[in-house]
Structures are given as structure tokens and as C-alpha cells.
Amino acid sequence: MSAARDGVVYLVGAGPGDPGLVTVRALELIGTADAIYYDRLIPPGALDGACEDAELVYVGKAPGRPSVPQEEIAGHLIEAARSGKSAVRLKGGDPFVFGRGGEEGEALHEAGIEFEVVPGVTAGVAASAYAGIPVTHRDDASAVAFITGHEDPEKDESAIDWEALARFPGTLVFYMGVKRLAANAAALIAAGRDAGEPAAAVQRGTMAGQRTVVATLGTLAEVVERESVSAPALIVVGPVVRRREALAWLERRPLHGRRVVVTRARAQASGLAATLRGLGAEVVELPAIRIEPRIESENVRRAIAAIRDYALVCLTSPNGVRLLFEALREADLDARALAGATVAAIGPGTARALAAHGIVADIVPEKFVAEALVEALAEVDVAGHKVLVARAAEARDVLPDALRERGAEVDVVALYETVREQPSEEAIEAAQNADYVTFTSSSTVRNLTEALGDRFPSDARVVSIGPVTSEAVRTAGLQVHAEAERHDVDGLLAALLADASR
Length: 502
Ligand code: SAH
Fold this sequence. Notes:
Blueprint: E1 9-13, H1 24-32, E2 35-38, E3 55-58, H2 70-82, E4 87-91, H3 101-110, E5 115-118, H4 123-130, E6 144-148, H5 162-167, E7 171-175, H6 181-190, E8 198-203, E9 211-216, H7 220-226, E10 233-237, H8 244-247, H9 249-252, E11 259-262, H10 266-278, E12 282-285, E13 289-293, H11 298-305, E14 312-315, H12 318-330, E15 342-345, H13 348-355, H14 370-376, E16 386-392, H15 398-405, E17 409-420, H16 425-431, E18 436-439, H17 442-452, E19 461-464, H18 467-475, E20 482-483, H19 489-500
Parallel strand pairs: 1-4, 1-5, 2-3, 2-4, 6-7, 11-12, 11-18, 14-15, 14-16, 16-17, 18-19, 19-20
Antiparallel strand pairs: 7-10, 8-9, 8-10, 13-17
The structure holds S-adenosyl-L-homocysteine.
S-adenosyl-L-homocysteine binds at residues 16-17, 41, 91-94, 97-99, 122-123, 127, 175-176, 202, 204-207, 231-234.
């Protein structure tokens, strides 16, 4: 089949494994491709942004089976382009560094197919950097060589010139070098490289579970064997390895090596997850709830129509703020509709969400629970006034009850509902040996414990955002190991960090 116009093939590098090291251009192309042909060593979640109807074809090597032959892959790419598709060939690291991207590009050129190359962050640079090894250094190395360690040194005509590498005045970085490490190191030493030169192996660089072992060129093979370092791993030889003593930033992060479960609704989890990752944690997202907007209800419509009548407007979550403004917008209103009202936010997150809409909250309590908001509102004269409490459907009635007691005429409107979401099997599996489970609301506690049943990771330490959530944890039959003093995400993080450094 031939399309009116041939499609384009993109030879795209997906980086070394950390999803944060995928380039903007790569994400853009993944998001618009009709077909994606991908390898094994691409970052987790790299295909999440693909179109729903994109064809995703695995062309990597499966354990115990031979890899898909190069001609077959090139054939796929050519065929896809000829049928007018935009095809992405997604590879780990950089497509032109031991990625056979050159061969694929040549096959495309021969077939007269237009292609584009998108470089990726190559493992040789990235895994070294994450291990705290600068591949060049003013004092230690003014050159760096990328070498395949896969070559058979017994082969008559090795493409690797060991004499030249032994003399090479700089850092040697071996890809695919674990299996033949002992033989390669011996060949290098025999050719004259100093056996005492520092050397390191970096396993799963930039990914969860990255591990680095350090030895000398003469002893690295033995250490790698003893520590069962396995592929994918990179071998670095040179005095720059010593720089790790000062530069091994990754292992120094406070949550390095800890697996933390985040249970917030997906849309809200990303901030917390990103912060945890930044602290070195491996994050498992296990959202047990989803936010379902309910702003189409009669109740909400009525409150919005009468929005100017409220003397006090109370908001109890960032979601509430977002949806209140959505409801206002649907009624052709904006922040000015709240001009005459006192605006109260239950905590700083909610206050920040308000600020994004141009409203500086008049009242933000020190503690972020309904009781504290009631206290903070003590100075506001509500008797005989109309008050709007805009919140989730299933919230507690502490705030409206207290305000009514003080003579306010309170309208409570549910802007959204939190509904149960079943986490994926994959995520549940990944959560099994978690070190921490974080809870940011009682509804996530109930929903997650119900969703997981006896597969709740019982060895994990539980960190709760505050007393109400903690109570729900205990009601679910679990123990709370740490509770936030400030009942917001920063407070939760602080509690987790304090617990982790026990
Ligand atoms: N095109 C890729 C390399 C593919 S060859 C790139 O530019 O990075 C595969 C080899 O790359 C592996 O055997 C290993 O030596 C190295 N490698 C790839 N990802 C790695 C990682 N995350 N950590 C350490 N080494 C990695």
C-alpha cells in the first residue's frame, strides 16, 4: 500500500532510563506518532504519552529469544512510512551510540524514506554522572572514549585496538561490558594500561536501584562478580572514578533507596511524587481515588447565582478552588464575584490555589483541619450572614455545624466527589516491598485499604498527613508510624524525612 505522501521516520533516543531525561522533542514525537517501534531499554512510562490509537510494537530482545533482526525492524519502519504514517523508532540512550541507529538510517536512506534523528542522553555520560563520576575533568581526563565491551577479545581481527586504548590519554567508558569484563580488563592490562587505575561499574544508571561498585582495573571483574552486578551496566576506567568521593550526589539524598507509595488522586499526586523523587525515593503511585466534578448540580448552580450574597466563602481544598472557579466561569463570572466576601482557606495549598486566581485568602489557620478553621474564624462576625462552604461531597460537618451554631446561614455545596479507583496490578505489585505508604486523606485510606485487602504492604511504615487521616488508618486496622505536624504535603514530607533518618 502506498500513501499519497510518505510518512517520516524518527530515530529517537529515549535517554538512559530516568523518565526525566527524555528530551522535549522525544516526548513531542511520542505524543504524535502513528506507530512506535521500541526497545527494551526505554524508560518506564516512556510510552504513556502516546496517542490512544498509536500502534506500539516491541522490537527488542525478549529473554531467551533472539532479537528481532535489523532488516525486519528496518522493514517495519519503511512499510510504516510508505503507508503515510509518522513512525518513531525509540531506543535507549542515544540512537547513534551503540544503538544501530546508523544502520537503520542508512536503510531508510536507501529506501528513499525521509527521516529525522533525535539524539538522546547516552548512558556513558548519564550513568557516570549519576554515579558522581565526571567523564572528563580538568585535572584528570581531557578525553573520553566510548567503547563496546561486547567484542570477543579472542576474535582474530578485533575491532578494538587494545594497544591504542591502553595508551589513550583519558577516561575509558565500556558499554555492554559486564560479561566480558575480566577478559577485557586483562587485554587492557596486557597492552600496558595500569592495573591499579581506578575503575567502576554502574548498574541501572539513572534508574531506580542504581548501584555503583568501585575497584581498580585489575580487581573490578572480581568485585563485579562478587556483588552480582548485572546488565545493563557501564564500566568506567580512569582517575576520574576517584572524584566520586566528593561527587556521589545520588546516594547522599535523604530518601535514596527507599520505596514510597503515594496514594493521592493521580492529578494531585504528581507534585508530591516529583518532590519525593527529588529526595531520592523510588515512588510507586497507587491512586485509590479520583476526583469527579459535581459542578453541574442544582445546588452548585444556585450558590453560584447568589455568590455575591455570601459574606464568607470557605474553601477546604485546592480541588474545591479549581472547581469553584470553573463553576464561576461557566456562569460567566470571575474572581470579582468574590470581591465583597471574606475568603477563608483551610490550608496553604488551598490558599495558593486561590492566589492563582487572584484572591489572597483573608483567613488561613495555623493547622489545616476543619477545627482549626473554625477557631480562626472566631473573629469573623457570621451571625445573621450567609456563608458558603464549598467542598467535597463526603466531607465532615464540623465547619458548617460550628458556623450555624454561631448564627450563620450556611450553604454547603459539594463541588466534587472522590470516587474509588482500582490501582493497576503492576502498581500493587511494585508496592509490595515499599518502605513507606503516605496518606493524605481519610478517603484515600478507606479506598486503598479496601482496594488492596490483604495485599496492603504490611511491612511499610505509614505516614499520615494529620489526625483525621490517622484515625482512618487506625480504623482500617493499621498502625500510624509518623504523623505530620503541619497538615499539608510539606508537613507530610517533613514527617517522612524525620522518620527516615531515625
Ligand atoms: N544507545 C544506548 C546504548 C545501547 S547499548 C545509549 O546511548 O546509552 C546497551 C548498553 O548500554 C548496556 O549494555 C549498558 O552497557 C549501557 N546502558 C544502557 N543503559 C544503561 C543504564 N541505565 N545504566 C548503565 N548502563 C546502561
